[in-house]
Amino acid sequence: MKKTLFIASAISIALLGGCSSKQVVSYGDATAVETTDINFGSTDLQKAANEMTESLTASPIIGSLTENKRPVVFVERIKNKTSEHIDTESITDSISTKVLQSGKFRFVDMSRVEAVKKQLQFQQEGGMVDPSKAIQFGKQIGAEYMLYGNLSSIVKTNKDKKDVYYKFTMRLMDLESGIIEWADETEIRKTREKAKVGW
């Protein structure tokens, strides 16, 4: 009797353990509002990238700069001045992609300079590429403008509430003159309050 009871208990535990370890994976809407926590998240990234891109491409100043040509721009990685660990490369990539898709600018990718240099050295010095077909040094086009920005935050906390204010600022600089041709900023405020029990 004890042996039968022990076997039945072991089977029940195994079955329950098997059920509890199952995971269900499903696709969600990548553009849906993300409210997992108060930190900078995917919704904030999308909001910042969309607002900055729309402001830049709709600016009358940019309209005049791009009326008869597509200026060459290099995008500096967004600087994170918050206390959080934020992947600012994702924000930079989103903005670069959207601005490029607008058709108003062309880009040089400064993050790939070393890789390009190695490839050109291989073509010129490796002895494996036909010299008449090798790309020559000194033929690349330099950037005319630099697009850069900062993400900063102010955090206020008390025993019942936490408030986080984010400010995202971007500028477009003429590299020859140093003049800022365009600038804008967007703000995000997020608040977390303790749940009221019994309401």
Automatic annotation (TrEMBL):
Annotated GO biological process:
peptidoglycan biosynthetic process
This chain's protein is named: Penicillin-binding protein activator LpoB
Give the Gene Ontology MF terms in alphabetical order: enzyme regulator activity
Gene source species: Thalassotalea algicola
GO CC, sorted alphabetically, is: periplasmic side of cell outer membrane
Pfam families, per the entry: LpoB (PF13036)
In which domain of life is the source organism classified?
Bacteria
User: Could you tell me which InterPro entries the record lists for this protein?
Assistant: LpoB
